Amino acid sequence: MSEFATSTAPADVVRRQYLASAAGDLEALRATLAPDVEWTEMAGFPLAGTYRTPGGVTSNVMEKLGKDWDGWAAHDDTYVVDGENVVVLARYTATNNATAKAIDVRVAHHFVVRGGLIVRFEQFVDTALVRDAMTV
């Protein structure tokens, strides 16, 4: 197993979460999350709210995004790390299944990583752009 695969460095844990998400590997994604994780999708976002437990996060966020959007992906490009805090600048791309409208939206994610697991996540995104793509 590679050093990256077992690293507890906060940025490596977060990167594994993005890679698992991109691969559609929800088991690997859940493995990056603490049992008591708090995962917050921004107010105004279609899945707004705070979800707890790895299973709660994947069933209420990733699985629902996969049903409502074709090709939903979070493209991580810039990492800013300060101790256990990791801020990732990224973008979402996808096409809404109901409207066939595409998005390419900038986003910031704030992760807190402790003991090699993500304990907290908060999303920042222009929710109006996402909602516009969902409206006929």
The shape, in one word, is globular
Instruction: Report how far the terminal alpha carbons are from each other.
Output: 47 Å
Q: Report Rg.
A: 14 Å
Q: How do the SSEs run, as a string of H and E?
A: HHHEEHEEEEH
According to DSSP, the number of beta strands is 6
Mean pLDDT, all residues: 96
Count of separate DSSP helical elements: 5
Highlighted features:
alpha+beta; six-stranded mixed sheet; 33% helix
Topology:
Elements: H1 3-6, H2 10-23, H3 26-30, E1 33-41, E2 49-52, H4 54-68, E3 69-82, E4 85-96, E5 102-114, E6 117-125, H5 127-133
Parallel strand pairs: 1-6
Antiparallel strand pairs: 1-2, 3-4, 4-5, 5-6
Q: Please, could you describe this protein's structure?
A:
The protein has helices at 3-6, 10-23, 26-30, 54-68, 127-133, and strands spanning 33-41, 49-52, 69-82, 85-96, 102-114, 117-125. It is α+β, with helices and mostly antiparallel strands and 136 residues long. It starts with a helix and ends with a helix.
Summary?
33% of the residues lie in helices and 45% in strands.
